[in-house]
């Protein structure tokens, strides 16, 4: 099913549920009617993003989370990263987790790029000595040398992504997570990021990737997990998983 260098489990989700409140803009009249009729609770609707999701990712696997919008891919990635907690079920993750879940996450807008390298590196578990040793390489890979001493609130979203990705790949994570943020930024840097991810994969790094670019996914990952309406409905070799997803696309 996948090319696994070791059977060590790096991430495991068991019967995980996650719901979100969908709060819609309501008129004053709707609120008065809601209150006057004695209804309980509020006007929020709930959306079940994940429904009893169970999956296991082993060391050295490169895994794509596939599915249409609203299928639960990004929610699963955020749960693995620890930035979000499940409503029920259990999640176990081994080692240092890093990657790009949201552009600018972990960056402080009032600090410079240089200061944010140290802040973001520390958040990702790097020591000051490790950041010192990797600093020049981080800046060079990001390609924003001219702006490294500017406050990041003046950065474009592409510059944010460049710096965040560069810090993340230099943090030597045990599990590297990447969401659709690679769609941000210029094409040359996207190619640079993709090449770096392939290098990490070939070096035995554990990768979990979310992208709508199915051909790109096939060039990075060996395994595909397809989600639909918050449920895992398919798990196989990446080519087979992509074909399965395409077979479910509306005509």
Question: Topology of this structure?
Answer:
Elements: E1 9-22, H1 28-36, E2 45-58, E3 62-66, H2 73-81, E4 88-93, E5 97-100, H3 113-123, H4 128-142, H5 157-169, E6 175-178, H6 187-202, E7 206-210, H7 214-220, E8 223-228, E9 231-237, H8 238-247
What does this molecule look like?
The protein has 251 residues and is an alpha/beta fold. The chain has one domain: Rossmann fold. The chain is 36% helix and 26% strand. It has a six-stranded mixed beta sheet, with helices on both faces. It has a three-stranded antiparallel beta sheet with strand order 2-1-4. Strand 6, helix 6 and strand 7 form a beta-alpha-beta unit. Helix 3 crosses helix 4, helix 3 packs across helix 5 and helix 4 crosses helix 5. The longest helix is centred in the C-terminal third of the chain and has 16 residues. The chain starts with 8 loop residues before the first strand and ends with a helix. The relative contact order is 0.19. The N terminus is likely disordered.
List low-pLDDT spans. 1-6
**Shape type:** globular
What's the number of domains?
A: 1
How much of the residues is beta strand, in percent?
Answer: 25-35%
The CATH homologous superfamily corresponds to P-loop containing nucleotide triphosphate hydrolases
Widest β-sheet, arrangement of strands: 5-6-7-3-8-9
N to C succession of SSEs: EHEEHEEHHHEHEHEEH
Question: How is the biggest beta sheet arranged?
Answer: 6 strands, mixed
Helical percent range?
A: 25-40%
Oligomeric form: single chain
Tell me the span between the first and last alpha carbons.
29 Å
Mean pLDDT score: 88
**Can you tell me the CATH class?**
Alpha Beta
Instruction: Determine the structural class based on helices, strands and strand pairing.
Output: alpha/beta
CATH hierarchy: architecture: 3-Layer(aba) Sandwich
Named CATH topology: Rossmann fold
Number of helices: 8
Q: Rg from C-alpha positions?
A: 20 Å
How many beta-strand segments? 9
């Amino acid at each position: 099913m996948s090319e696994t260098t070791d059977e060590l489990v790096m991430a495991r989700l068991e019967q995980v549920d996650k719901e979100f409140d969908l709060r819609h803009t309501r008129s004053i009249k709707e609120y008065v009617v809601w209150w006057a009729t004695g209804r309980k609770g509020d006007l929020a609707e709930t959306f079940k993003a994940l429904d009893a999701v169970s999956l296991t990712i082993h060391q050295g696997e490169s895994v794509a989370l596939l599915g249409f919008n609203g299928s639960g891919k990004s929610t699963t990635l955020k749960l693995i990263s620890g930035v979000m907690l499940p409503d029920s079920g259990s999640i176990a993750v081994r080692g240092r987790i890093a990657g790009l879940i949201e552009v600018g996450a972990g960056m402080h807008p009032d600090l410079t790029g240089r200061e944010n390298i140290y802040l973001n590196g520390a958040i990702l578990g790097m020591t000051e000595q490790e950041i010192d040793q990797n600093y020049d390489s981080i800046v060079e890979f990001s390609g924003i040398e001219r702006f490294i001493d500017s406050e990041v609130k003046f950065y474009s979203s592409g510059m944010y992504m460049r710096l965040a990705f560069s810090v993340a790949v230099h943090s030597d994570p045990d599990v590297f997570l990447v969401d659709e943020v690679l769609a941000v930024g210029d094409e040359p840097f996207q190619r640079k990021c993709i090449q770096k991810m392939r290098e990490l994969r070939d070096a035995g790094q554990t990768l979990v990737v979310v992208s709508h670019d199915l051909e790109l996914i096939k060039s990075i990952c060996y395994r595909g997990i397809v989600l639909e309406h918050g449920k895992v409905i398919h798990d196989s070799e990446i080519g087979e998983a992509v074909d399965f997803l395409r077979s479910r696309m509306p005509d």
